[in-house]
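Progress against Task 2.4 (sequence-to-structure conversion) is shown through the following example record, which the project officer requested during the mid-term review.
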Amino acid sequence: MNAFAYWALLMFAISLTACTYDQLEAPDNCLAPLELEVINSTPSSCGLSIGGFEVRVLNPSPEQELVNFSIDGENFQGSGQFDNLSAGVYLVRATNGSCEASLELSIDNEEGLNASLQSSASACTSPTGSIQINATNAQGEVRYSLNGSAAQSSAVFEDLAPGEYQIIATDDSGCSISLETTILSDVSFATVDAIIRSNCAVSGCHNGNVSPDLRNASTIRDRANRIQTRTGARSMPPSSSGRSLTQNQIDAIQCWVEDGAPQ
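Structure tokens generated for the chain above:
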């Protein structure tokens, strides 16, 4: 065997055992993060949709001039003014294509029923979360509906999985208010970081020798969706590495990403 053939065979053998998943997609670059502020807010009234608010980008740069706003996550508009709203909690989302920001604010009933809520995290793979509502200025009994379900008198909902929830509280006068909240999982970034470091950021793989460097917390977060896809498909870490993730570890990564990949 000549020298060229020997080296070609050697490089081929190395390629079979080396980390082959160095092409994790690079994140979009957000060079000027959006900051939102509320300019004004108008309360609503029981049974009516007369509330509203206006938000804007704080200290906009030229990149931030073409910002679109939404309160339902789907229908975006160029103005931060939202009118004809009933009482409730609204999550305003803003984007200019490369950067995103969100701001939560409330529209109260000027007179009558108002409410606030508190939620607790759920276990990743079993529904253990809860929501508790605190109603004020109610007339008579208050009943609560969760995601359109039959109303109940209890102000507590239990055994809830991670996800988004809408609660509508209504008193005996017919006055109502809509509240929204997100129940997160109890998976912390520290848990995900430990999984990645011990199985993927190892010698010969993403530990600085191969890009991206998954010893870096911000790198893990920036590539969270891609990491979830690869670990869920059991192609990361590669089988040639001799390492593999348990289903609980894969589930933990998925729950963390679905929470928004908090760091």
